[in-house]
Write a structure and sequence with these properties.
single chain, 187 residues, mainly alpha, 51% helix, 8 helices, three-stranded mixed sheet, GMP Synthetase, Chain A, domain 3
């Protein structure tokens, strides 16, 4: 691989969409043999790269300076924190971190918004987050579009099982109680 290729960033989500588009075009062509061959090629490449990644993880976890038979949990944080590497590891079910840890890692990378996980709906793939009003628009009206988009972008590589993000707003500080004068007859 050339230095130029290694330096070119690859967006895993876009690459996945591109593969789907090519397969859809082949399907639309009406040639079942071409579709079958393309699907087999994709499966074979996935198996090949998955086996290569598994081997890399094994070699990294047993590299010098680590105890023999080290675990993938001991992989360098930079490796697990790289969006492309993380997406490949998740795609091949090789990522050593669980979903909640990967979600937290992704949200830590969203610097412009303070986001807190409220919950995850396994059935729909919806992640519900809470953002402070000041970061979600300041009005409490749910205008957390920027926060939602930032979270979606961060989660695409680290937690593809998150298919939708719902951002709720929380007050930026404590709610103040308004104290007024007592009604005239109440004294």
């Amino acid at each position: 691989m050339s230095a130029a290729t290694a330096a070119t960033p690859v967006n895993a989500e876009q690459a996945g969409r591109r593969v789907e588009e090519v397969l859809e075009r082949l399907t639309a062509s009406g040639d079942p043999a071409a579709v079958s061959a393309a699907e087999e090629l994709v499966r074979s490449l996935m198996d090949f790269y998955g086996a290569g990644l598994a081997r890399i993880l094994h070699l990294l976890s047993s590299s010098p300076g680590k105890s023999p038979g080290g675990s993938p949990d001991e992989l360098p944080a930079g490796l697990l924190g790289d969006g492309l590497v993380a997406s490949l590891l998740v795609l091949h079910d090789l990522h050593p971190e669980d979903r909640d840890t990967r979600i937290a890692r992704a949200l830590d990378g969203v610097r412009e918004h303070t986001l807190e996980v409220v919950g995850f709906d396994e059935e729909t793939g919806t992640l519900t987050l809470r953002a402070r009003d000041a970061e979600a628009g300041g009005c409490g009206c749910g205008s957390g579009t920027g926060a939602r988009e930032a979270a979606e972008a961060a989660l695409a590589s680290f937690a593809p099982e998150v298919r939708a993000v719902d951002v709720q707003t929380a007050p930026a500080g404590p709610t103040l109680l308004q104290i007024g004068t007592a009604p005239t007859g109440a004294r």
